[in-house]
Specification:
alpha/beta; Rossmann fold; six-stranded mixed beta sheet; globular; binds adenosine-5'-triphosphate; ABC_transporter-like_ATP-bd
């Protein structure tokens, strides 16, 4: 198994259009060890989502190289699964059919994957929704279905772009707890982009703080073990959590 799930070596990105060019990322380098949970935080427009799009193979770097499990990223990889803020569920398909469709896209619509998906639905408290349509579900339930669909393909790298930001605080905390439980014991690497510093601290092993336009990597922060060992809810009441929050806040607010 590769030690690093992901390696960025002097990666930059300039978007080109007929009228304009925007440099979203200045050359940036980092390594993400296999099995770790890493968050990208930073002010709006500093290139966080651009990094996920590059890793997903949806766009190419302008310079530098991105390596996924020691192989250069040239196109979208079946080892990656991507979850966004919008649940992207198809309203005319049931929960079960939405998840099966995700498996079919990956050529994984077989009995083993379908039974794993049913197991995940159970883990996320959704077994009773199998034959319901997305319009019959609450926002939090829809996002849980989207999470099951993302995990059902058993990715090695999970990309999460503000997946819980449209949810209210209670639902968000609930989803964070479920995500941590689901990831426990699975050899999965996760990259999260979030504006929510509490979410970044509660979920991550490492936080990459970005800033500037074009975006640069400002700091790499290892989350203390006491926070990582606690559940997302319990972690929030720790003094170490509050002091890391204040540190991150200052870092992001500094021009
Ligand atoms: N497809 C695109 N074409 C042109 N410019 C783009 C494109 N996508 C992003 N940009 C620009 O690149 C810069 C970085 O955008 P990006 O979405 O990566 O930032 P972000 O940190 O994720 O922002 P936010 O936190 O607001 O979502 C911004 O200036 C944005 O306008």
């Amino acid at each position: 198994m590769a030690t690093n799930a992901l390696e960025a070596i002097d990666v930059s990105k300039t978007y080109l259009s007929r009228q304009d060019q925007v440099t979203a990322l200045a050359p940036i380098s980092f390594r993400i060890p296999s099995g770790s949970f890493v968050s990208f935080v930073g002010a709006s427009g500093c290139g966080k989502s651009t990094i996920l799009s590059l890793v997903a193979g949806l766009i190419s770097p302008t310079s530098g190289e991105l390596r996924l499990f020691d192989e250069p990223i040239k196109r979208p990889s079946p080892r990656i699964s991507y979850m966004l803020q919008q649940d992207c569920l198809l309203d005319w398909r049931t929960v079960s059919e939405n998840i099966t469709l995700g498996l079919s896209f990956r050529g994984q619509n077989n009995t083993k994957s379908a039974s794993h998906a049913r197991y995940l639905l159970g883990e996320l408290g959704l077994s009773h929704t199998l034959n319901q349509y997305p319009s019959q579900l609450s926002g939090g339930m829809r996002q849980r279905v989207a999470l099951v669909r993302t995990l059902a393909v058993q990715p090695e790298l999970l990309l999460l772009d503000e997946p819980f930001s449209a949810l209210d605080y209670q639902n968000k905390l609930h989803l964070e707890e479920l995500l941590v439980n689901v990831l426990q014991g699975r050899k999965m690497t996760a990259l999260l982009v979030t504006h929510d510093l509490e979410e970044a601290i509660a979920l991550s092993d490492t936080i990459l703080v970005m800033g500037g336009r074009p975006g640069v990597l400002r700091r790499i922060i290892e989350v203390p073990g006491e926070i990582r060992k606690a559940s997302p809810l319990a972690a929030r009441s720790q003094p170490a959590f509050r002091s890391l929050f204040n540190e991150l806040w200052k870092e992001i607010e500094t021009p």
